[in-house]
Amino acid sequence: SIDGRGFFEKTGLYTYDPGFTSTASCVSAITYIDGDLGQLWYRGYSIDQLAANCTFIETCFLLLYGELPSQRQLDEFENRVKDEMLVHEKIKDFYKGFSPNAHPMSIMCGIVGGLSSFYHEAVDVTDPKQREQYAIKLIAKMPTLAAIAFRTSKGLPIIPQVMVDALDKILILHADHEQNASTSTVRITGSSLANPFACISSGIASLWGPAHGGANEACLQMLDEIGSTENIPKYIAMAKDKNSSFRIMGFGHRVYKNFDPRAKEMQKMCHRVLQELNISNEGLFELAIELEKAALSDQYFISRKLYPNVDFYSGIVLQALKIPRDMFTVIFALARSIGWITQWNEMMSESIVKIGRPRQLYVGNKKRKYMDIKNRV
Ligand code: ACO
What residue stretch is flagged as signal peptide (predicted)? Predict the structure, then answer.
């Protein structure tokens, strides 16, 4: 029993593993993480090589088909994606139904789920060709949907090359990350043979939380709250205080106990962007750099192996790119779509798709007799 309170069914044996810290939920050939060595590979290629040499669309091809494309395959793939970029006119009417102050992530949850209403008839998730078509539709439509979610009426700024490179790197580095919370959510939803767009919508909802993809937006909110470099020691002390729920957002990771390899790439890019745009001395960016230094030299963070994760730097880079904060996690969702759909496709290709159905340890009341309302006090 748990704390001497519970009792269990007597049938079978199962493990009690809250947060799945040591339970593999599937067999996968897509992404490999070595948390101790700080390594991350997509289909066997380390992400530093991919981030340095290839584009996001090549990364999509690699994840989806398992191999890097030849030039001909890449051109063909790009053309197929381009052909699917437009969304149904009626989808645009959908946007009018949201509150004018809606967070773009709430719009994305609704809109991507809504796509299932246009692509549901005769859907056969057991057919590999149909699954491939869904994957291409998703990769193609996500940027369009995200762009509509953002109020383009504000006008577009001129974009320097360093910004284009930074955005492409962000997309590559976020493309897949094995069985994280949102991917596990997509797999569990898919395991009931649900519509693929509905599966992705559940992944978007899971990603939104500040302990997951929402950390990039939460990191910037935290920097605002800290306000200036003099306040850093006070906030570091709060993060260490076990009576306070405050955490340094963008620090720590369940699997990486050395350094998040994506963060290493983003850190280089972040410092390059700040330098080339000549904004390292601007309040918020200076504060981020000082906070990074302070936490990395503090025994509390060192002993718990708490390093900046990818969201610490991606938030700062996206802010430097003048992307509105509530779009940060939408961009993450856009990048992760290829990982979600590839993982879904892998699961659906298995000879038997078993519905995801964890058990629990029951600690509630023992069986009781129903009491009529007039006898209750
Ligand atoms: N600031 C201060 N202390 C922290 C932080 C942090 N950011 N992260 C973990 N700790 C401490 C915990 O209090 C705990 O201390 P204790 O051993 O004294 O009890 C210890 O480090 C271990 O932390 P856990 O919460 O057990 O780690 P877990 O693996 O469950 O959580 C998580 C990982 C959710 C990422 C956590 O580090 C966190 O909340 N970070 C901030 C949010 C964030 O950046 N999320 C993005 C993750 S990356 C991504 O999803 C793309």
Answer: none
